[in-house]
């Protein structure tokens, strides 16, 4: 149930829609561009239809001293303008659902795609983003030296069969 105090706080911005930009500029010192219009939009963010969202691989890594991490591993063969938003969604959702720190690792077969995938993804005001995603990218430059190639060749144990064991991630958060 919504109480009157939080309701009153955000209702100010519904009644005076320009107040949010003034507050950013005058109270927080955040530069914000000139606006052409500001209007109230429905606050309902519920997804009506179920949307299937899957990462290529999701690994839970439990450390001895630093907590638990969830590694979302994505294979990216070419630029896809929809992927940055999907990656931000994946990480936010994983954190909300499982309560563990999410990490995005992107595997790229060519250098141009690797450079594209490695760019920070920022959401929000350019000088003060609300969310920044910084993918960790493994691509051709990672394997550029023969020393690195030798190191990589001994780093991985390739599975003998194609069957993988998938375990539901442990969580302290309710589903």
Describe the structure.
The protein has 5 helices and 6 strands, in the order ααββαβαβββα. It has helices spanning 4-15, 19-27, 83-98, 111-118, 146-155; strands at residues 57-62, 68-75, 101-107, 121-125, 128-133, 136-138. The chain has 175 residues and is of the alpha/beta class. Helices cover 31% and strands 20% of the residues. It is globular, with a radius of gyration of 21 Å. The model is unreliable at 161-167 and 171-175 (pLDDT under 50). Strand 1 (57-62) and strand 2 form a beta hairpin. The strands form 2 sheets. A 4-stranded mixed sheet has the order 1-2-3-6, with helices on one face. Strands 4-5 form a two-stranded antiparallel sheet.
Quick summary:
With 175 residues, the protein is an alpha/beta fold. The chain has five helices and six strands; from the N terminus they run ααββαβαβββα.
């Amino acid at each position: 149930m919504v109480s009157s105090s939080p309701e009153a706080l955000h209702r100010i911005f519904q009644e005076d829609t320009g107040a949010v930009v003034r507050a950013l500029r005058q109270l927080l010192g955040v530069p914000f561009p000139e606006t052409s219009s500001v209007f109230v939009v429905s606050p309902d963010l519920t997804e009506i239809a179920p949307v299937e969202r899957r990462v290529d691989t999701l690994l839970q890594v439990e450390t001895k001293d630093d907590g638990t991490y969830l590694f979302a591993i994505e294979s990216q063969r070419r630029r896809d303008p929809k992927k940055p938003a999907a990656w931000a969604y994946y990480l936010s959702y994983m954190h909300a659902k499982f309560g563990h720190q999410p990490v995005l690792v992107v595997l790229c077969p060519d250098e141009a795609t690797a450079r594209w995938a490695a760019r920070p993804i920022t959401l929000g005001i350019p000088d003060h983003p609300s969310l920044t995603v910084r993918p960790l990218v493994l691509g051709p430059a990672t394997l550029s030296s023969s020393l690195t190639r030798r190191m990589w060749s001994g780093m991985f144990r390739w599975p003998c069969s194609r069957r993988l064991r998938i375990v539901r991630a442990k969580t302290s958060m309710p589903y």
